[in-house]
Design brief:
With 336 residues, the chain is α/β, with parallel strands linked by helices. The chain has 2 domains: 134 residues, ATPase, nucleotide binding domain (Nucleotidyltransferase, domain 5, 2-Layer Sandwich), CATH 3.30.420; 171 residues, 2-Layer Sandwich (Nucleotidyltransferase, domain 5). 43% of the residues lie in helices and 19% in strands. The chain has 11 helices and 10 strands. The strands form 2 sheets. A 5-stranded mixed beta sheet has the order 3-2-1-4-5, sandwiched between helices. A 5-stranded mixed beta sheet has the order 8-7-6-9-10, with helices on both faces. It is globular. It starts with a strand and ends in a 17-residue tail after the last helix. The chain binds 5'-O-[(R)-(carboxyoxy)(hydroxy)phosphoryl]adenosine and zinc ion. Its EC number is 2.3.1.234. It catalyses: L-threonylcarbamoyladenylate + adenosine(37) in tRNA = N(6)-L-threonylcarbamoyladenosine(37) in tRNA + AMP + H(+). One of its GO terms (biological process) is tRNA threonylcarbamoyladenosine modification. Keywords: Acyltransferase, Cytoplasm, DNA-binding, Endonuclease, Hydrolase, Iron, Metal-binding, Nuclease, Transferase, tRNA processing. InterPro entries: ATPase_NBD, Gcp-like_dom, KAE1/TsaD, TsaD.
C-alpha cells in the first residue's frame, strides 16, 4: 500500500509548529518554534504578540519541516491544520498558511480539532485500541474523553471552572514562577511534602467533572494570610500540597471512569500530561486494576502543543475522506 504523508500546521496558542507525519504514526519531522519567552514577562499569552510571532516564523519552519523529513511537496498527500479551539488571530495564521499551500499545490486540506490532536498524539507512540479513554489536561482543558473509534470522541467529564494547567499557572504567579509554571511547580513538588491539605473538590461526587478554582483560592488565601502575619511558608511544601490535591482528583475521577467504561487503551494528553507526579500516579493506579487497559503516556515533547499530533489526527480524517475546502475558518471555542 502507498504511504500517506501529511504536512501539518499548529498555531493555536504560543507555539508555531510544522511536521511531516507518515501514515498517521511516524514522525518524519517536527519543528516547534516556541514564543514562551516573549509572553513570560506578561504572565500569560498576549494574543497580538502570539499572532505576530506565528507570522514571522511560519514560512521558514514549513521549509524546515520538509527539509528535515527529506521530502518535497511532491511527496505530500495532504495538508492539515488546527482550526480550533484556540486564539482566533493565532489560529488564522496557520489556517492561511495551510490554505495557501493547498491552493499552490492542489493538495487536499484537512481541518483538525486541537484537542483531538492532543489525544491522538498517542498514535505516534503506539497503536490505540478502541474503545479508548483519554485524560486530556492542558492550559485550557481538563476533560475525560471516551473514544469510540479514531474520529468519534465523547466528553464524559469536564472542568466546571479552571483547567488544571491554568490553576498551575495562576498559583505559579503567587509563588513568583514565570508562565507557564507547571513544570517548575512539578519539580518543586518532588522536593516537598503535602502539609497543607488543600481541598479536593468534587472528589466523591458521582460524576466525572472537576473544579479547580476552589483549590486555587485556598492556595492564594493561605499565601496571603501568611504574608499578613509575616510567616514564611515553604515553597516546596506549598507546591507538593497543591500538586497532591490536583493529582488526587484527576486520578480518582479518571480511575472511576476507566472502571465504568472499561476502555482497551488509556491515554494522557496535553501539557499537564507531562506532570511527573500525575504520570507516576496513573501508572500505579492502572497497574493495580483487575482488568488494566494498555497505557500510552506520550513523551513530554508530544504532550505540549506540536504539529505532529495534528498530522496524526488528520490521517484518521484522511482515511474517512473528511476534507475541508478554502472556506475553512478558525473556530476559537470549538468543541469535540
Ligand atoms: O497543551 P499545552 O502545551 O497548551 C494548551 O493547549 O494549553 O499545555 C500548557 C499547560 C500550561 O498550563 C503549563 O503550565 C502546563 O501545561 N504544564 C504542566 C507541566 N508542564 C506543562 N503542568 C503541570 N506539570 C507539568 N510538568
Ligand atoms: Zn494544547
Amino acid at each position: 500500500e502507498k504511504d500517506i504523508r501529511i504536512l501539518a500546521f499548529e498555531s493555536s496558542c504560543d507555539e508555531t509548529s510544522t511536521s511531516v507525519v507518515k501514515n498517521g504514526s511516524e514522525i518524519e519531522s517536527l519543528v516547534v518554534a516556541t514564543q514562551i519567552k516573549s509572553h513570560a514577562r506578561f504572565g500569560g499569552v498576549v494574543p497580538e504578540v502570539a499572532s505576530r510571532h506565528h507570522i514571522e516564523v511560519i514560512t521558514q519552519i514549513t521549509k524546515e519541516a520538509l527539509a528535515e523529513a527529506k521530502v518535497t511537496w511532491d511527496d505530500i498527500d495532504a495538508i492539515a491544520v488546527t482550526h480550533g479551539p484556540g486564539l482566533v488571530g493565532a489560529l488564522l495564521i496557520g489556517i492561511n498558511a495551510a490554505k495557501a499551500a493547498s491552493m499552490a499545490t492542489g493538495l487536499p486540506l484537512i481541518g483538525v480539532d486541537h484537542i483531538m490532536g492532543h489525544i491522538t498524539a498517542a498514535q505516534l507512540v503506539d497503536k490505540i485500541e478502541y474503545p479508548a479513554m483519554a485524560l486530556q489536561v492542558s492550559g485550557g482543558h481538563t476533560e475525560i474523553v471516551l473514544m469510540k473509534d479514531p474520529t468519534h470522541f465523547e466528553i464524559v467529564g469536564d472542568t466546571r471552572d479552571d483547567a488544571a494547567g491554568e490553576a498551575y499557572d495562576k498559583i505559579g504567579r503567587v509563588l513568583g514562577v514565570n508562565y507557564p509554571a507547571g513544570k517548575t511547580i512539578d519539580q518543586w513538588a518532588h522536593q516537598g511534602k503535602d502539609t497543607f491539605n488543600f481541598p479536593r473538590a468534587m472528589i466523591d461526587e458521582d460524576n466525572y467533572d472537576f473544579s479547580f478554582s476552589g483549590l486555587k483560592s485556598a492556595f492564594i488565601n493561605t499565601c496571603h494570610h501568611a504574608d499578613q502575619i509575616g510567616e514564611k511558608l515553604d515553597k516546596y511544601d506549598l507546591a507538593a500540597s497543591f500538586q497532591a490535591a490536583v493529582v488526587d482528583v484527576l486520578a480518582a475521577k479518571t480511575i472511576r471512569a476507566i472502571k465504568q467504561y472499561q476502555p482497551k487503551t488509556f491515554i494522557m494528553g496535553g501539557g499537564v500530561a507531562a506532570n511527573l507526579g500525575l504520570r507516576e500516579r496513573m501508572d500505579q493506579e492502572i497497574a493495580a486494576l483487575a482488568n488494566p487497559p494498555k497505557v500510552i503516556l506520550p513523551p513530554l515533547k508530544l504532550c505540549g502543543d506540536n504539529a505532529a499530533m495534528i498530522g496524526a489526527a488528520a490521517y484518521n480524517q484522511y482515511l474517512e475522506g473528511d476534507f475541508a475546502d478554502l472556506r475553512l475558518d478558525a473556530d476559537p471555542s470549538m468543541e469535540l
